Amino acid sequence: MLRSRLTQAACAAQRAFSTSPRVLAKQMTVRDALNSALDDELARDDRVFLLGEEVAQYDGAYKISRGLWKKYGDKRIIDTPITEMGFAGIAVGAAMAGLRPVCEFMTFNFSMQAIDHVINSAAKTFYMSAGAVNVPIVFRGPNGAASGVAAQHSQCFAAWYAHCPGLKVVSPYDSEDARGLLKSAIRDPDPVVVLENELMYGVAFPVDDKVADKDFLVPIGKAKIMKPGKDITIVAHSKAVETSLLAAAELAKKGIDAEVINLRSIRPLDVATIFASVRKTHHLITVENGWPQHGVGAEICARIMEDQTFFELDAPIWRCCGVDVPMPYAKSLEINALPQVKDVTEAAIKIVGNKVGKAAATAGK
Amino acid sequence: MFKITAKASVSAGIILHNLIDPTKNALLTRLMRRVHFTAAELPRPLAPSALHDRYENGVITVAGVHPNVGLEQEQEQTARVRLQRGFKLHRLSEGPDTMVSLTQAEAVRYYRQMKAIRQIEAAANRLYKERMVRGFCHLYTGQEACAVGMRAVMRPEDSIISAYRVHGWAYLMGLSAQGVLAELTGRRSGCSCGKGGSMHMYAPNFYGGNGIVGAQVSLGAGVALASKYRQNGGVCLALYGDGAANQGQVFESFNMAALWQLPIVFVCENNNYGMGTSAERAACNTRYYTRGDVLPGIWVDGMDVLAVRSATEYAIEFAQNRGPLLLELCTYRYGGHSLSDPGTSYRSREEVKEVRRKSDAINRFRELCLDYGLQSQEQLEEIDAEVQTEVQNAVKVARSDEELAPQYLWADVYAQNIEPRLRSVYGYDLMHARSKPT
User: Fold this and answer.
1) Pairing, β A192-196 against β A138-142
2) Is residue B5 a part of any domain in this protein?
3) In this structure, is residue A357 part of a structural domain?
4) Locate the Transketolase-like pyrimidine-binding domain: which residues (chain A) (predicted)?
5) Chain B residues with CB-CB distance to A125 below 8 A
6) Is CB count within 10 Å lower at the N or C end of chain B?
7) Do B319 and B421 fall into the same domain?
């Protein structure tokens, strides 16, 4: 499998730069991380329940809820018909009435059927009621491009949901992220959108013992430096973190020491961590699989522009994004539609050499 | 088939047998003239109701309702009233009671509540014309019997969610007239501190107030799911109009409510127009009580507070024990869709006048109270005056109170804010706050 080889390489790249002592850590897949997070929180709080398409008897379309229906039964693990708007509304209503639903979208592409409830019903009610009615709900599911599923099933919603005040939006990369962020999301009193990635579900990551702890949480709103570096900052989220780590390994071979930041949260955005990194490296690129316009990278650029950190830059910021087209089906086209390691490496080399703006200006002539 | 019977309350010792004699009863002759029944509308045999005794034992106390006035319970008299129009049933072999009881205290309460809603809406109308109400303002005028009839039989564990025509419901669910009107004028003493406005009012067991047509129906199914989940015995009334009845998610909610046997009553307040589109122009089937497919449904005269009460009582008991069902309350709004709509391009002034003249819920109920001797003309006028004072006082505050201080603009975005600073027009310099103490 290409992706597991890639991920192993990304992990190796991250470990190679790690300053902490190497311990033979146990492995956990992102799927198991999510599954165990749900299991923990279902056991901890009887207000928590999971609903969505195929979550119960089928064990989850992507097996995230495997075994939970057998363990918790019909009351806590609820199979819905294929009726996103309806069940998202029901989940939000239950949250308004004090339960803690986890609403699974089989993929976030289908959340567009229900986006009114995510925004208008979940995100805005606390404000509209002047703090009288909060909506402690989690919307979760795979987000972004999967593999060979074409335009309607390959889209990143990070920018969509992060646009909206009242929502919190997280996007885990590895098992530690997935487990800790989902548990935090379920315990949070506000609506949280958890953007997972189907391609990462089967990937195993080494995890510390603390990650398996029942109360292990990853704080919402904090980014993680995956690999420290001094020459250029690469900011990414979800699967693009993998691309960025691999690019950092390539760059290291060329003598460029890149710092890789895993955003973990899209809203709130941990700009403090990004700013601190940029003050150190003076160069920044963003990597995401979503579209460029008004995307996560665009927001990071704007944040830098609005801050004194702007003066720390030695070169323009550059974004590596999904290509500005609907996702094509064919394999080679799909690969070309998403930022690859070589794209990030090339962008970083140009930035560090302060050639990006010039190259673009020339290309425009 | 049509008759009125009356029963004397033992404690009161007042004999009302003369009501049975049509020659002596003006009400009955009026009713017989006015009401023309089709076969489907003929009053049905009384349905056995376990809850029925609750009326006979006296006043039902409902949490959050404004206090009754001027009635000694020992002297209470109870009238037995046959509803003027029967129910139409879908997938039900028997329906709600068509012979209902009405105590003096209930008569006072329903009359007072309906008058209060009408007065609040009249005040809202005036404030809107004075440009003190911004944006949308949808009045409930004409539909008062629906809310008051439903509220009368809601128990403390029941909840309600509705759409954007909710000033009356907010009042009935315990908010003051001032809380409602000051919200309309956007003042800090408004029930949502002026942050919600006309469509976003909330109270315990009242989940709004929703500006997205149809969204409240699936939210209501979620509230019902929470009741079932918690096993608290609560039933949710999810209200929607004939316009929203065509939204896809309404049918999605019917489906899941039926599958999961949620304790919910879907209540279609059919006021005949979804904005300016008449029911016939919007729905291939305007018998809204039949549109739940396998769900049972009941057509109700929504201009009769006692019919609504009887149907809702039946429906709550049904939803709790046998699963979800639909009510269609046939009603009418006197005003336009909102105050920016004169409401005359898609219907005639004569039509509105005709409904007001023949079917006005408050007039009908007033006559009933008088004819049954439950209230005197003077007593009703006293209530009118009292309601007027209450609303006038509320209007004063709604006019004079201040809007929230600017720092509350950025209050209540999150229950647990973790943004270091929220963004202002430029710069990230806002500290998140809460507009009410937590």
Assistant:
1) parallel
2) no
3) yes
4) 28-203
5) 208
6) C
7) no
Is the Cβ of B437 closer than 8 Å to some Cβ of chain A? no
A332 and A208 in one domain? no
Residues of chain B with pLDDT > 90, as a percent, come to 80
In the residue annotation, A153 being an active-site residue is answered as yes
Residue B205 lies in a domain: yes
The secondary element (H helix, E strand) that includes residue B267 is strand B264-270
ipTM for the predicted complex: 0.93
Asked if the C-beta of A96 comes within 8 angstroms of chain B's C-beta atoms, the answer is yes
Q: Are residues B370 and B438 in the same domain?
A: no
Let me know whether A35 and A180 are in one domain: yes
- pLDDT digits 0-9 by tens, A189-215: 999 999 999 999 999 999 999 999 999
Cis peptide upstream of residue A136 (ω within 30 degrees of 0): no
Cβ separation B192–A130 shorter than 8 A = yes
Residue B23 in tokens: 């020659």
Q: Say if the Cβ atoms of B223 and A93 lie within 8 Å.
A: yes
Query: B363 and B435: one domain?
Result: no
Taking the CA atoms of A279, A284, A290 and A293 in sequence, report the sign of the dihedral they define: positive
Residue B208: both structure tokens together: 């709004």
The CATH number that applies at residue A286 is: 3.40.50.920
Assess whether B327 and B423 both reside in one domain.
Answer: no
Contacts with B324 (C-beta within 8 Å, 6 or more apart), sequence order: B224, B254, B257, B258, B261, B262, B263, B264, B265, B266, B292, B295
Give tens-digit pLDDT for A252-296: 999 999 999 999 999 999 999 999 999 999 999 999 999 999 999
pLDDT in the model for residue A123:
98
Co-location of A66 and A174 in the same domain: yes
Q: In what order do the strands lie in the sheet with B325-330?
A: B88-90, B297-301, B325-330, B264-270, B236-241, B159-161
Cα–Cα distance, B300 to A113 (Å, whole number):
34
Q: What is the CATH number of the domain that holds B384?
A: 3.40.50.970
- Under DSSP, the state recorded for B370 is H
Q: Within this chain, do residues B237 and B378 fall inside the same structural domain, yes or no?
A: yes
Question: B220 in contact with A at a CB cutoff of 8 Å?
Answer: yes
Examine the residue annotation and report whether A283 is marked as an active-site residue of this protein: no
Q: Are residues A208 and A81 in the same domain?
A: yes
Contact B194/B182 with Cβ under 8 angstroms? yes
Range of the domain at A129: 26-212
Q: Which of B215, B229, B256 sits opposite A117 (nearest CB)?
A: B215
B256 touches chain A (CB under 8 A): yes
Give me the CATH number covering residue A134.
Answer: 3.40.50.970
Per annotation, catalytic residue among A41, A53, A117, A153: A153
Chain A to chain B, count of Cβ pairs less than 8 Å apart? 159
A79 touches chain B (CB under 8 A): no
Contact: A89, B415; criterion CB under 8 Å: no
Do B273 and B328 belong together in one domain?
A: yes
The pLDDT tens digits of the residues spanning B52-110 come to 322 233 333 333 333 343 344 456 789 999 999 999 999 999 999 999 999 999 999 99
Whether B229 and A94 lie within 8 Å, measured CB to CB: yes
B346 close to B273: Cβ distance less than 8 angstroms: yes
Domain boundary among A165, A182, A212: A212
Report the distance separating Cα A220 and Cα B177, nearest Å: 41
Q: What is the pLDDT of residue B3?
A: 37
Other Cβ atoms within 10 Å of B187 Cβ, number: 21
Cβ distance of B192 and A132 shorter than 8 Å: yes
- How many domains, in total, are found in chain A? 2
Does the CB of B180 have a partner CB in chain A at under 8 Å? Answer: no
Cβ(B300)–Cβ(B329) below 8 Å:
yes
Q: What would the mean pLDDT of B184-210 be, rounded to a whole number?
A: 96
Are A83 and A172 members of one domain? yes
Structural domain boundaries enclosing B152: 17-400
Query: Which pLDDT score is estimated for B13?
Result: 32
Instruction: Using the structure block, give the residue that is written with the tokens 């911004």.
Output: B134
- Closest approach of B182 to chain A, Cα-based (Å): 14
B365 neighbors B114 (Cβ within 8 angstroms): yes
Measured CA to CA, the distance from residue A215 to residue A218 in angstroms comes to: 10
